[in-house]
Each structure stands twice: as structure tokens, then as C-alpha cells.
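Hello,

Our lab assistant flagged a job as stuck in the queue for most of the afternoon. It eventually completed. Since we weren't sure the result was trustworthy after the delay, we are filing this so someone can double-check. Below is the sequence as submitted and the structure that was eventually returned. Let us know if re-running is recommended.
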Amino acid sequence: MPRLMIVAGSTRPGRAGLPITRWFGERARAHGGFDVTVVDLAEIALPLLDEPDIPRIRRYTRPHTKEWSATVEAADAVVFVTPEYNFGYPAALKNAIDYLHQEWHHKPVGFVSYGGVAAGTRAVQQLKQVVTTLRMLPVFEGVTIAWHPRFIHDGRFQGTEEMERAAAAMLDELLRVEAALRPLRANSRPDEPGA
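-- returned structure --
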């Protein structure tokens, strides 16, 4: 069974991202197509990129980088849960992405975004520019949540039927694309230039 890593991209105290991430994690487990892991960037607490070498050569010196590398390497597909801050995505999420390079290659990626009227879609558009340079393949389907505080009650996110359908469609597409990209991941060797 392919492994799906869901990343809570906000680290702000009181963040809405954690209940939204938990909700999507439940949808992913109920879907049944993936072995699901949820990663909370607030718990991982990566410092601002502190490796002396560029991530592309994978010569890591810090224990937190090695652990993060192993976590991402183990994933076959990724979903980023992201808010929109000032028309962009959180610095903590960019930092987590930038720590690594080859570990992201040839993996499908989906997005659960939330915010005001734009529902985090501008943050997703910026993220797509970054992930495609890491040879990730964004799927078309996504979950967009406008005015998200309306759906959080007693610390739990309660999605609508429309959100449930969007989540299922994205998971279906991630499963299809993961299978298509699997040979590329199998044939990539870390020691190859550009691998």
C-alpha cells in the first residue's frame, strides 16, 4: 500500500490547520488507498535551514535533518495543508520543503488550503511553483476551504459534503498518479546528477 504523508503547514499557536489536518487525515484513512502518516511541523520544529551544504547533495550533518529526510523519503505521495498568510504560504512550510531536495522527487502532491474568501488558493499557486522544481507532480483536484473558522467547533473541523467529495476526488487522483510515478522513483538513484 502506498504511503501518504499529510503535512500540517502552519506552526502558529491557535492555528486552524491542526483540526483541518486531523479532519483530512480521517478522510484519507477512510479512503483506504494509503498508509497514512500525519506530520505536524510545529512538533518537528525544524530550525531555519541550518545545514552547511546544499540539500541537493544530501550531505546532512544535523540529526533533525536526517530524521526529516527519512520521513519524506518514506512517503510515496504528499498532501500539504496550508493557510494563506498575506497572499502566500507559511515560512515554516517553505523551510521544511527547502531542507531537502531529492527526497521530494517524482511524488504526487495535493493541497488542502484554507483562508478567507480566496480559501488559500493563492498560497497553493505559489507552492506549485516550488514543488514542480522539485519534480513533484501537483494533482488538479484539491480541497479549498473559505472562511474556515465557520467549520471549527470545540477544536474539531466539520467539513461539508462538498469538501468531503473534494477530498475523496483528490485522494483518488493521488492514488492514480502515485502508481504512474512509481517507476520513476524506483529508477532514481541518489548518486545520479539531478536525481
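-- support follow-up --
The delay was a queue issue, not a problem with the job. The result is valid. Residues 161-187 form the longest helix (27 residues). Residues 145 and 182 are 30 Å apart (CA to CA).
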